[in-house]
Amino acid sequence: MKKFNVVIVGGGSTFTPGLLKGMCSRKDTFPINRLVMYDIDANRQQKIGEFAKILLKEEYPEVHFSYTTDKAKAFTEDIDFVLCQMRTGGYAMREKDEKVPLSKGLIGQETCGPGGFAYGMRSIGDMIELVNDVRAKSKDAWILNYTNPAAIVAVALKEVFPKDNRILNICDQPENLLRSYGKLLGVHERDFEPVYFGLNHFGWFTNLYDTEGNDLLPELREKILDGGFRPADAEQRDQSWLDTYAMVEQIVRDFPDYLPNTYLQYYLYPDQVLKKLNPDFTRTNEVQAGREKRVFKDCALAVEAGTAKDCDVVQNDAHGEFILFVAESIAYNKGNNFIVILKNDGLVSNLPEDAMVEVAASITANGPRPFAVGEIPTFYKGLIEAQYAYEKLTVEAYLEKSYGKALQALTLNRTVVSAAQARKVLDALVVANKGYWPELN
User: Fold this and answer.
1) Which of 139, 164, 191, 262 counts the highest number of beta carbons within 10 A?
2) Is residue 416 part of a domain?
3) Domain for residue 346, yes or no?
């Protein structure tokens, strides 16, 4: 069985330990020869990298492991998979993504609304650079991208690299939802055959079939309406995520046709969500006080003790496992079904052909083979068309350095709506992102 050479971009992420643990648990089905962690933040990556040495020595000693801040060492000619989870600007800029909009009376969230716009404008350039760096050495490596906001990044990469069919943008939130559905129904998430349509962080499940072809969505809908909704890993989640999942009940009650992606709360109930947000203590602060502190502490304890056994930080999670499931399906041409982000090309027949839609697909060695959805109802079509216009204009604003298109994008976004508010928050974000964005004209 071939062993693969893998690069993790964003090695200092607090999600990396879960990804490493996933690699250990799947070493018989997705064997790795060489693993390199790459990050531009040497301090963060060292904390995770030293922990990784301990974990891999105990659970995966045959892997040749290293971590580096030198792209020349990370990106070589024999790479098979690049697993990308970068965060341009780190938590310092994420905090601005959340707090600048809130200071203007708008939702502050890292992938949705003005915050997502700001993050997208930062991510596009780094992702283009990454693809060029990888392709300079390896034209055949698969680039599996988690980098947010995935919807905007996917549009940008398809625009800049239209013929590169080995870039696959993915998101673990549909996987998280499938795991949560499975826990409610007593069904393993891999035994579902989902039908899903939308854009990233902006989609719906229309059907959820079991292995015998029964649609479990009606039963699931009733369970959510009767008892609410929680993530499968609720015990490990911060309060803001529990609140987010809880909103699914209201969305289903108001729009019972389908089951929504949790992020739709920001677009369907912006006023209601805004009232819950604390401008002085946002999700970034919650992560820094919670998950980040726990992960780095546990990594340090493992390094000090010289063992990663019984370390809480290495629990498997959807983020770490999902990207490996996809890689494994590609590596061995398994054709397993996953929800991924692809150019529409008629998959949703009444949406723009060039939209980057999120749908179920069979993942093969030659890439995804998506399942067509057909026409969608007017309400969902209208929401998606407006959101896609926002995403497309955001990418055009970056590539053309256009202030006018940036303003159009934010005016279209359902969390903003007002052109006057859009201009106020855009001007503030221009200042906050100086040095990260191109100069807009």
Assistant:
1) 262
2) no
3) no
